[in-house]
Structure formats: C-alpha cells, structure tokens
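We read letters as residues; the fold follows as tokens. A sample entry reads:
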Amino acid sequence: MSRTVPLHPVSLNFLNPEQEALYRVQSLPAMRRHCRLAIIVGLVLYAMSGFLDSWYIPPELLGTVNVVRWMAMGPAILTLFYTFTPHFERLNSIPLALVGAYAAAGIVTLQWIGSEHVAIYYNAGLVLTILFTYTFVGARFIHALSINLTLVAVYNVIFWQLHPYPTRLLLTHDFFILCANMIGAFDCYLSEAQRRKLFLREQELDQERRHHLERSLHDRLTGLPNRELLFDRLEQAVRGAERLEQNAVGIFIDLDDFKPVNDTYGHTVGDHVLQIVAKRLRHVVRESDTVARVGGDEFFVVANNVSDQAAVLVLTATLATELAEPIDLPGGAQIPRVQASLGFCCFPYPKASPSDIIRRADQAMYRVKREGGAGAAGSLPVGADTELT
C-alpha cells in the first residue's frame, strides 16, 4: 500500500491523469444521486423561506421579490434536469457549485431591495447558502471555494460601494460570511480528500484481491494456469465448441524421464527445465488457447477451433518437436533433449465434460508411455474411437 496519496494539495486532483479519470467515472453514479437530492431539498427550503418575505418586505415590493426568487430557482431547476443528461458526465462539479451561486444572487438581490434593517435576516440565509455549496450540493472543494470567495468579493463591492451599509453592519456580515467560508471550506476539503484516499485504498485492496486470485489460479513456478483454472477454461471451450459447431482438442503432456533430471542436476535445475518447457508450450499455441500445469511434470493444452484431424496431428507434432530441443542450463551445461508423451481428446462429443476430457487424454498419454513414450495418441474429433498414433 502506498504511504503517500498522490493528490494535488489545492485542487485535490490525482496527479496521475488516468487515476483521476477513473475516480470521476466511478464516483459519478453516487454524485448524481446525491446532487439531485440536494438540489430538491435546497429548492424546497429556498421556496419555504419566501413565507418570511411578508414580514420584512413592504407589500408593494412582494411581487418583485417573488420574481427574484423564481429567477434564482429557475437555473437550479435547470441544473436538476441537466444531471439526467450525458453532458453531466463531462461537466458536473461547476454546475453544482453554481446552484449555490444562484441562491446567493437571489438573497443579495433581496437585501438590495429591502432596507438595511432586514439585512440581518437575509444574511443568515446567505450563510446557509455558503454552507450548502460547500457541504451538501456535491460540488468539489476547488469549485465551491471559487464560487464562495467570489461571493464575498461581490458582496463587499455591492454593500460597501454601490448600496452602502453602515460599516459595523457590513463588518458583522463579513465576519459571519467568512466564518461560514472557513468552516465549510475545511469540511469540504477534508471530506473530498478522505473520499479520494478511500477510493485509492479500495483500488489497492482490489488490486491485492486480483493478485491473490491470480496466484491461487496459477502455478507459482511457471505462471501457467493451474488445474482449477484449467477446468474453467475447458468448460468454456466445450460450450464454445458446441455453440459454434467447431472442433477443439485437449492435449495431456507428460515429460519422459524427468526424474533423472532432478536426481542428476538437482531440483533447482529441474525447476528451470519446467519453466523452459512452459515457455515453449506457450510459444507454440495461440493466444486464445490455454497451457496449464496440472502437476509435477504434467501439462495440459486446450486448443480451440481445430479444423480437422490433420491440424490435431500437426499441433501435437509441433509441441513434441519444440520440447525435444536442447535446454541450456545456468553455468553452460545443456540437457540434450526433453521428450514427452502426449495424449489428446478431441471434442465436442455427447456429454463431454472437463473431467472426462482430461481423463480420456490422460489414458491416451499412458498408452504412449506403455509403448516407450515420445509420441502422441488420442481420438478423432466428434467422439470417434479411432486412435491416431
């Protein structure tokens, strides 16, 4: 697990662009649900606060105030619909931060319309809007911060220069607005950083799970699929062959006289030989085929879409020839050749199963062993009983 989270200290973007893109894709569904709920709740509360207007706004201005409120709510409603469009996948945080800006613009306009005596009541709504933008609507820290700092600047320009408030009143408002910004910004920053660290940790855990799964399904010495994974690949091959009406073949490979290699050169050299054998087998087959190690010096090949009997014979001959090449050992020594006995079973055939295919190929391989080894035997495609030698 990495000890340093690769985040930009201000924007909180992952320094790795691919990681940033993955985070945005994976966090998008939760963001959609969260921001829709937040916008709906915000609209309801914003509309409910309109009942207070009659207490503080002169009757002759109530119509204008209602228009202002709807003008502030309109863009937020459009943003809600925007979250259902594909464009939200590419651009989401900035529109969400602007939802708070629309609400703040409406409140500032109401303060402009009303007298300075009612400003304290609407200023409380402005503080709530700042906190809403930081902590509830779902905007990222950097965008919420930009919107709310812009709000502070615009608020002071309006009520210090254009529509002057008494200095003490403006400073009081600034104090609470800045306090709300400080609290909201810290909370938003820490929350987003924590979400990103959690995402990174989940990625690391997922990678560890995949690694352990990979190790559990692969032979540690050769890196080939083990018997458990071989059964799964064979099952897929059987189904594919039946569905596509194609022939496939399973080939059981057993190295002849491998024990003397271990006895003569030691197990380290024996392991080296098995690794070379695994590489050679993989070199012969196609990428869509499977080479597995099923035990000691036993291997199994699953070849899909084998055209005919001749193709099976060519494949087994190629495998045997490749394995018979001399093997260079560390230190300059050389094993002249490694011979193998091969038994194959072609499928599909009635009631074909992975265990039965392996059993038939194993039996065919042992027939070769009894006859002296270094050869191949098996059955024709589609379950014919005729032997090929």
Summary: Confidence is low (pLDDT under 50) at residues 381-389. The two ends are 54 Å apart (CA to CA). Residues 17-210 form one domain. DSSP finds twelve helices and eight strands in the chain.
